[in-house]
Specification:
- It is a single chain.
- This protein is of the alpha/beta class.
- It is about 10% helix and about 30% strand.
- The chain is built from two helices and 24 strands.
- The strands form five sheets. The chain has an eight-stranded mixed sheet with strand order 6-9-12-15-18-21-23-24.
- Strand 23 and strand 24 form a beta hairpin.
- The longest helix has 15 residues.
- It is globular.
- The N and C termini lie far apart (about 50 Å).
Length: about 210
Amino acid sequence: MKVVIIGAGGHGQVVADILFHMWTKGRDLELVGFVDDDPEREGTSVLGLKVLGPVNKLDHIGHEAVIVALDDNRARLEMTERLDDERMINAIHPSAVLAPDVSVKPGGVVCAGAVINPGTIMERGAIVNTGAIVDHNCTLNEFSHVGPGVNLGEGVHVGQGTLIGLGASLIPKLRLGNWSVVGAGAVTTRDVPDSETWVGVPARKLS
């Protein structure tokens, strides 16, 4: 399957590396290259793959599927909706450990060393980053991002577009609202409403 990666920044490089490792494990993947709307990236090479031009050139590039590799949650949502007619694949690193019933919807990314336990659902475009632990029966809504080294207790509900920063911990059965932020290293013991930022130990709303 010929795949184009949308976005050649840092997260795009991570996704390309995941897809390469999937290919080494026998997945039918051929990485065509990147497209990126930053004109300074056009024609450059990233991890041995060419940046072929802006996203609007995608129709002129031979491919069968894409993956949106933008780390900004809202940008990832907008780009995914822009490419609604494209076949969207997942990127799941072979070193990640997923229970057999974990559901990863199109555009999902699971990075190296992540652990996702039974009953968890990753909705469209969600990210579980390097070394994160997601306990059983969690829900990661569309375009959410569980950062590197995060530890989610059982049954945590992560709202659409929500970002959980590096190394944060959340006790079981919390609900994080849509487009909220939990700061790096925070220990979250209470529900977080929509569009709020919580930081610290224990985590509190950033005023």
